[in-house]
């Protein structure tokens, strides 16, 4: 049985608790949150951009701490799951690693490239296992798209576009998501998902040119990027400036030499394949979502003493660094080389 201590009982923290409750190999032994009331819950209902189950949960026997350091000192668990605002990711991850625990950290990995490098140095120094919640690498729709690309059956990618759009994320504690200094705004907090897919599916681009909506605090609440690849046209866009009634949607379109793949969560089916000379059809998807599959994968890796490597600290750091390059491109209004 793998034992977990979770820090940050907000939307994502509750989502993770619900998954741990379903996994047969995990015991929740400790919680940490600065708001004591967040830990005194019996329901996992939480507002967010992805619908999650409002299951009941019994945390009466779980130890609860308002101080993260006190939880680490008390111990009694194998890994720490960090679901805190992004501005705390680096500091709390390094503390947990140095205290001898494995760490699962929510995305984005950190706010700056320097912070990601410090986190990777701590992983190397301590020898602990570490991963980041870049959940699209486990989301069934995107997993099936990667399988289709990797099979080579339909040839090379000629064109690819990725997008996600959302109403403002007003559910965050103390409005932290809408505070660019704490979240990185939509460009880093939300767009990083598609940046990670660009890298995961297509590899590292040579350069990027981005434009966006820049807020008064200098953060970018909507971003649109064009990536430079030999023989491919690739773009992505996303932001959370849509009206309150819009909700959330994520989509992608990939045109290959022998087929077109469409992913759109506003449609049924969510993923379709249209081969040249054939009929358009639905792509069958496994059950579950990326949140479930990433934590099932991570906890299985903790039990085995070795992670799958689908998401690594290095890959998560690269996604942050490419996103930061895009943000800098917006501010400089010019194309920038991708260097990491």
List the helices and strands and how they pair.
Elements: E1 2-7, H1 11-22, E2 26-32, H2 36-39, E3 63-65, H3 68-74, E4 79-82, H4 89-98, E5 102-105, H5 113-126, E6 130-132, H6 140-151, E7 157-166, H7 180-183, H8 185-189, H9 192-202, E8 207-214, E9 220-229, E10 232-239, E11 248-256, E12 259-264, E13 271-275, E14 281-282, H10 290-304, H11 313-332, E15 336-337
Parallel strand pairs: 1-2, 1-4, 2-3, 4-5, 5-6, 7-10
Antiparallel strand pairs: 7-11, 8-9, 8-15, 9-10, 11-12, 12-13, 13-14
Helix pairs in contact: 1-10, 4-5, 5-11, 9-11
Architecture overview:
The chain has 340 residues and is an alpha/beta fold. The chain has 2 domains: 2-134 and 292-310, 3-Layer(aba) Sandwich (Rossmann fold); 136-288 and 319-337, Dihydrodipicolinate Reductase, domain 2. The chain contains 11 helices and 15 strands. The chain has helices at 11-22, 36-39, 68-74, 89-98, 113-126, 140-151, 180-183, 185-189, 192-202, 290-304, 313-332, and strands spanning 2-7, 26-32, 63-65, 79-82, 102-105, 130-132, 157-166, 207-214, 220-229, 232-239, 248-256, 259-264, 271-275, 281-282, 336-337. The strands form 2 sheets. Strands 14-13-12-11-7-10-9-8-15 form a 9-stranded mixed β-sheet. Strand 13 and strand 14 (281-282) form a beta hairpin. Helix 4 (89-98) runs parallel beside helix 5, helix 5 (113-126) packs antiparallel against helix 11 and helix 9 (192-202) packs across helix 11 (313-332). The longest helix has 20 residues, at 313-332. The two termini are 38 Å apart. The model has no long low-confidence stretch (mean pLDDT 96).
């Amino acid at each position: 049985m793998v034992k977990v201590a979770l820090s940050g009982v907000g939307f994502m923290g509750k989502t993770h608790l619900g998954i741990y409750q379903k996994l047969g190999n995990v015991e929740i032994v400790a919680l940490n949150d600065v708001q004591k009331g967040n830990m005194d819950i019996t329901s996992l209902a939480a507002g967010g951009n992805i619908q999650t189950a409002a299951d009941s949960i019994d945390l009466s026997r779980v130890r609860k701490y308002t101080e993260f350091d006190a939880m680490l000192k008390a111990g009694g668990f194998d890994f720490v799951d960090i679901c805190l605002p992004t501005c705390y990711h680096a500091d709390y991850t390094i503390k947990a690693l140095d205290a001898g625990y494995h760490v699962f950290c929510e995305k984005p990995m950190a706010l700056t490239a320097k912070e990601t490098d410090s986190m990777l140095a701590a992983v190397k120094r301590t020898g602990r296992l570490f991963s980041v919640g870049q959940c699209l690498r486990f989301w069934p729709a995107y997993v099936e798209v990667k399988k289709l690309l990797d099979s080579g059956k339909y040839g090379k990618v000629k064109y690819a576009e990725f997008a996600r759009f959302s109403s403002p994320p007003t559910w965050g504690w103390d409005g932290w998501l809408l505070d660019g200094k704490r979240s990185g705004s939509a460009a880093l907090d939300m767009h990083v998902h598609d940046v990670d897919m660009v890298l995961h599916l297509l590899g590292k681009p040579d350069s990027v040119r981005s434009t966006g909506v820049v807020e008064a605090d200098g953060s970018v609440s909507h971003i649109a990027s064009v990536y430079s690849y030999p023989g491919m046209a690739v773009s992505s866009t996303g932001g959370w400036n849509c009206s309150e009634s819009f909700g959330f949607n994520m989509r992608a379109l990939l045109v290959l030499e022998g087929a077109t793949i469409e992913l759109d969560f506003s449609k049924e089916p969510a993923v379709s394949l249209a081969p040249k000379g054939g009929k358009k059809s639905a792509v069958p998807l496994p059950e579950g979502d990326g949140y479930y599959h990433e934590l099932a994968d991570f906890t299985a890796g903790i039990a085995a003493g070795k992670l799958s490597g689908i998401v690594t600290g290095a890959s998560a750091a690269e996604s942050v660094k490419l996103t930061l390059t895009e943000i800098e491109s917006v501010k400089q209004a010019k194309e920038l080389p991708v260097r990491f």
